[in-house]
Amino acid sequence: MNIAWIGTGVMGSAMAKNLSKSGHNVSVFSRTISKCEPLKEFGIEVKDSIKECVKNADAIFTIVGYPKDVEEVYLGEEGIFKYAKEGAYLVDMTTSSPILAKRLYELGDKFHILDAPVSGGDIGAQNATLSIMVGGNKEDFEYMYSIFECMGKNIIYLGEAGSGQNCKASNQVAIAGTVAAVAESIMYAKKSGLDPKTVLDAISKGAAGSWQLQNNGYKMIEKDYAPGFFNKHFIKDMKIAKEVMEEKGEDLPILNKVLEMYEELEKNGFGDYGTQSIIEKY
């Protein structure tokens, strides 16, 4: 399949590589072209505009930063809707607004549009073991399923347009509480005179075990804050979830508290660090 890929950050680059390794003809574009250059050695073509990247593509994937970036990439003067061929499959894998996902679906009636945010971080992207949460027409999901399998292992259809984004928001709510709890567990161990690594070794295989503990917990101990997922993007995700709940008259106190903590981290210069840097709050 001829595939266009827009967005080559921590996640996008690895996902595009996996599509190419699976035998697909992949072209990429990023606003920062230098980020694309390393992909050439994997047989991926680098294009200098969205127009050139998408014009012959059967499927177009996007994974950019914020909802405003999604809107610009699809609806802007130089956007995908203007240059993609009719009948192309457009898949936004950015964690974005469910409202925007529905809007794109409604406006893009000459395309097959899916919202398909992912979870699993940089490790999942590299190993093609991502969880992929998909909203849109079920027939379109089924058509694209084999392509999703090149990038993920847990591929779930959630329902109509926007459902994938709502599922990802639920995912981020769960992570918010878990990553903060892991940091608190480490601090409890330290204050109790225990070696925190030994404590994680002891509890990681029991009821307290989680992806966050096994991956980010040890990074917290080592003060390894390299971003598998940026704090600034996690803040964006939590704000989306908070706004959706506020529209429904609901309040999620743990989410709100963790969001506040990350916003303080960002103010202190940690926006481009990984989410495990929440340990600095303790």
Automatic annotation (TrEMBL):
PANTHER family: 3-HYDROXYISOBUTYRATE DEHYDROGENASE-LIKE 1, MITOCHONDRIAL-RELATED. Residues 162-280 form the 3-hydroxyisobutyrate dehydrogenase-like NAD-binding domain. Residues 2-159 form the 6-phosphogluconate dehydrogenase NADP-binding domain. Belongs to the HIBADH-related family. Coiled coil: none annotated. The lineage of its organism: Bacteria, Bacillati, Bacillota, Clostridia, Eubacteriales. This is NAD(P)-dependent oxidoreductase. It comes from the Bacteria. Keywords: NAD, Oxidoreductase. Pfam families: NAD_binding_11, NAD_binding_2.
